[in-house]
Amino acid sequence: MDMLTDKRIERLVKLIHFIGAKENCTKAEIRKTLACSDRTVDYTIKELEKELQQTGTDMAIVRNAHNQYSFSNKDDRQLNEVLRRLFFQDDMVRFIGCSLSGRLSVDSFIQKHFLSRSTFFRKLHKIKPLLHAFHLRFEPRTFKLIGKEHHIRIFYFCFFWEVTGSGIAWPFSIEKQFAKQLFAPIAKAMKLNLSSLQTERFLYWIAIQWLRVKQGHFTDLYDEAFPSDLQTKMLAHAGELLKTVPENIRSSEVQFLLIILLNSPFLYHDAELVASNLAANQLHRTEEWRATRRFARALKKWFSNALDEEAAQRMEGHLLQIHRNKRYFSVNYSSFKERIQLDVLQERHPLITEGVFAAFEKVLAEEMVPFLQMDQAALLIRYILLVYTFADIEKLNEPLNIHIFSSEGPVYEQKLSKRMNAALPYHLNVQTSVTYTRDKAEMPAFIVTDTLFPYHEKVDVVYIQSPPTNQDWRRIQQHCEKHHKRAIESILLKRKEQQETEHLFKREMNGG
């Protein structure tokens, strides 16, 4: 957490993100994450418990019978409020937060926060790696950020979004209602369909752009690979936002808006806008388009049974958005929250992450793509979410075969089969006593029955009541989860064996 200079606060922030993402974690996992002793882990947990008590809710840290820690009565909004309160206890977070105004006085900041000059400069030195990740530095005399304008803006966005995002607090001097008025005609012109959180994200961008432009800071032109009709439309509807920008450089600010809106990595556009963006980049043969084509082919090959043509086209269009945004900003920063999220995604969606990682490595092995070398945690998260959004996840592995046998007969079994498919978040192939006999069904993962059933050493039998109780449904779900995990492990093992065989074959073909 490079923006934090206070180790105590850093541990508390990491602990919130870690327990929140993992849901259940051991003390050993916490100790490894915080890089501290067991004693410090205990102390940090107690400190966080005190912070949670100040929220006025029932939220708390609890330890289960397996010595795993989790949040009880978890409230994400209250957790974000705790995070904001912790962030602003750090001197450098307060200093960076003040710097956007352009009227920052180091002497007044030191006096206001009771810091010595030596302490201030020692802490300022600690955030140098953070600034370097954004290709920035503080000017020694004025303490203004020095670097390219679009790097300064992405720095402020990442900073404020991490500290005050998700609608917890509005951190800018510009009124939020005014930012909404600036953004509304742009969103309407582009026909953006946004959630409240997406809208909040773009309002942050609009506020930062407005404040920087007002101070006389403008971005450079990027390239011409934008749909021309969209650039014209943006010029027409962003007049209030860009009215203080000289006409001869207004196009660069329009391109900045198109990068954060048209090429947002967090926004799924309609098919028409996706096709228009792809066509503009194909026409100019941009580096991002070439990388997108190679990566899309690798993903299609890996997930061939889970992607139809329409989904593949939408996925390629969104890949281009990710790559355009990534190359434009080219920063080498990912937050601790993003790094934890990537670890959790790898644990919970191994089939998707394996395919994404394999495709990513293949693209990088074929050709050096500089903008894909940086900040890979955030990039890989977007890839995984992209595949999850557009691929038919159920087709990534074979369905679980479950057999139902009931003393109530075939009609009841069929009804229960439908309810199981509707209630359980797994791809199921449920056979009843009739279909089992007629179709000569394969060996099931497990059998669900409300009657005495002959013992079968190779198949689990789940005995339930008729109709099933809540406890019965929980037991059925637990068995689904267990066998689903086994199926994934089997697929991954087969793929690993296949890759090893292919590797040995290549070595033999190349003469050892």
UniProtKB/TrEMBL annotation:
Residues 76-160 form the Mga helix-turn-helix domain. Keywords: Membrane, Transcription, Transcription regulation, Transmembrane, Transmembrane helix. Signal peptide: none annotated. InterPro entries: BglG_antiterminators, Mga_HTH. The chain crosses the membrane at residues 154-172. This is Mga helix-turn-helix domain-containing protein. It comes from Shouchella clausii (strain KSM-K16) (Alkalihalobacillus clausii). The lineage of its organism: Bacteria, Bacillati, Bacillota, Bacilli, Bacillales.
